Amino acid sequence: MLRISGRMLFTDAMIVTGLVSHDELATRSSIGRYFFLPPGENERLIALAGFAVLQQEDLTADAASIAARWRAARERHRTPLIEREGPDNFAGLQRFLACVQQLSEERRLSRVAYLAEK
Predict the structure, then answer these.
(1) H-type helices in the chain, by residue range?
(2) Cα 2 to Cα 33, 36, 51, 117, distances in angstroms
(3) Is the per-residue pLDDT at 1 higher than 80?
(4) Disulfide engineering: 63 pairs with which of 29, 35, 47, 111, CB 3.0-4.6 Å?
(5) pTM here?
(6) Phi, psi (rounded to 5 degrees) for 35
């Protein structure tokens, strides 16, 4: 709920901006329930909700960088993480992060931040 002239910041990392395979979609959505949108759909939905987009910023390169760093850090701490998470969970999250990195680096899945006002 926002007051009149209230602002919101919304980010979406599931904007399909290139070819993405079924397997890549399954890996990218393996840690939760996601909706993958075409470019322009967030702007339409934001307007439909009565907001005006003031600014939007492409954060796709940042998403790739963060996924790569997180994956590398987890790899450095592999043994204690496997002890805590189990080998299957560790491997699954590493696959997820590799997928996020690749799809983002190749700009096939994009992350965009939207600043909007009511």
Answers:
(1) 22-28, 41-48, 60-76, 78-85, 87-105
(2) 26, 26, 10, 9
(3) no
(4) 111
(5) 0.89
(6) -120, 125
